[in-house]
Amino acid sequence: MKPSKQLAEKLLSKRRVGARGLQKPARNKSSVGPLPSAAGNIKEASEDADMETFIRTAFDANYERLRFESGHSLSPELKETALQQALLYWRRLSNIARRVTETEVHLTLPSQKTRQERPFSIEGVVDIVREDGKTIMYDLKTHDTDAVRADLASYERQLNIYAYIWRQLRSQSLDQTAVIATALPEAVRQAIESGDGETIQSALAAWDPVIEIPFATDHVEATVRDFGDVVDAIEDRKFAPLLPAKLKKRETRNETFATRVCRNCDARFSCDSWRCLKQRFEA
Ligand code: SF4
User: What is the pTM of this model?
Assistant: First the structure.
């Protein structure tokens, strides 16, 4: 399968098609209307048509699998909105997807030891673009660009570990690293809500999901040590949820931690802080 199709599949599975995180469709609208094309020439336009057919097929297969696994299904309108979002991802990210030379590259930093001598390893998955003699490493995140920019240091630490593995352990050259933030920005969401093709086109044009990450592997040792400390803390059962007050604090895009993180946390039903917040909310 072509890397661009693999990336499209990855976007679909990262999106985890479901009600969570999707906007309700605008009233009386079952789709976002005509989608703007990103194709720059006839060959690309033909590839776009081919890819959109592929996305529709992969979307249906992905949806049926999730429906079977979870026992939940979407209303036809919400399902159509989810499909339109997947198509929009392709429209906006196709210029990168077309250039990807290796996707789902697994990187491993093996045989590490925590301060308490516990063995651990660090693993990650990235996409690689090799073009004009340059190699760029992309890390796909389902976060939005504001959240990434607000916490750039932690993305930088993670990506720099991958860069270190790529360069030192695999002896490969690397010129640039970047995060692709796939969550739809508010402006694009609102444009989709409007259902107007031109509004969507201009919102898409203004959306830049690629955030270049400063490339420096000087702090890799400290980051690996931090990972090890987390491993020790987990193994020693020294962990606790954030306090309820922290969950309510507004962060980027005026969202609370509870909305941004806890809502998708598998541990929330056994989390005291989440329960406490819900009780207060429902009281
Ligand atoms: S719900 Fe999950 S993310 Fe939120 S505080 Fe509890 S454990 Fe942490």
Answer: 0.67
